[in-house]
Amino acid sequence: MVKRVHLFDWHKEHAKKVEEFAGWEMPIWYSSIKEEHLAVRNGVGIFDVSHMGEFIFRGKDALEFLQYVTTNDISKPPAISGTYTLVLNERGAVKDETLVFNMGDDTYMMVCDSDAFEKLDAWFNAIKRGIEKFGELDLEIENKTYDMVMFSIQGPKARDLAKELFGIDINELWWFQAKEVELDGIKMLLSRSGYTGENGFEVYFEDKNPYHPDPEKRGEPEKALHVWETILEAGEKYGIKPAGLGARDTLRLEAGYTLYGNETKELQLLSTDIDEVTPLQANLDFAIFWDKEFIGKEALLKQRERGLGRKMVHFKMVDKGIPREGYKVLANGEVIGEVTSGTLSPLLGIGIGIAFVKEEYAKPGLEIEVEIRGKPKKAVTVTPPFYDPKKYGAFREE
After folding, report:
1. Residue ranges for the binding site for substrate?
2. Numbered residues of the known binding site
3. Where in the sequence is the domain holding 335, given as residue range(s)?
4. pTM exceeds 0.90
5. Which molecular-function annotation in GO is an example for this chain (predicted)?
């Protein structure tokens, strides 16, 4: 069964392309990917990302449980704020990249990828049941994916919009810090966060979903539609545009961000004690807090000793050509890896991409080749982001 977000009907009416993504029918673009992309880079755009998964963890054992099933130290940030962290399988591979908010009062909200929430639901509950065989556990896990609305407002003018709508200067928040806010009486969580490389914020709240899998929970999304249209109306003076998943992907690629299912995944290599792709291979070791026990830690320690074998690298094309997922990467005529994500940068007008290559080639400044339509095309490895961070992105010089 194809899943649908609360405002699917609105998107179906206004978007030029709607198609299935990770099991959800989602808007891919409204005007064009390039136009929406540049609106976010230069002004502000709004994304409906209600297909993202959300879990609520409640109870005195919630923190200890989350510390064990994720890699980062989520005990450090105060309420209300979030931590970027990873969920690994027992052999070190990434089950998903997540954001965990400390909501206070022994309550945490996890935000995960749209195509991972079902397997995470099964994973967390299996671990919970296993622990409960040996003792009591004060923990409730609630899957809120179909109930939650999530809008992402991104771009340099998102700050002005947040001030106007909520009276908050998001630049005074640290990254992933959140505030409880209201818009026309609708309570929601506002977080300084995003997936575009730009400054911005995201809002979360509950509403009725006409396509909820539970018929008893279905209803008209009055809150979601009101908030969406209110933001669009307030953003008119800033040139706001609704943006689809097409622009979201090109924006995250320009920023150099990984995408679950492309760069991060678990390949289920059952014949080995170390699975792929691990956070060490995907340059995500900044999200690992080594001074605690967590699922997958032993495998990562083994991998650090043995070597990674292959590792992620960013590259930009020197020759004309657009790299795509699955294209071979070569050096000196030898295949050294393959592209996991690639596109034509709307901002730069050149091909850019991410690849996994032999470990010795995973550093910036090396000449490589990407096989495009059977022909090797010159490229060079770089340090992300692909754009000039002084001119674009969350920390541009104003």
Report:
1. 202
2. 202
3. 309-384
4. yes
5. aminomethyltransferase activity
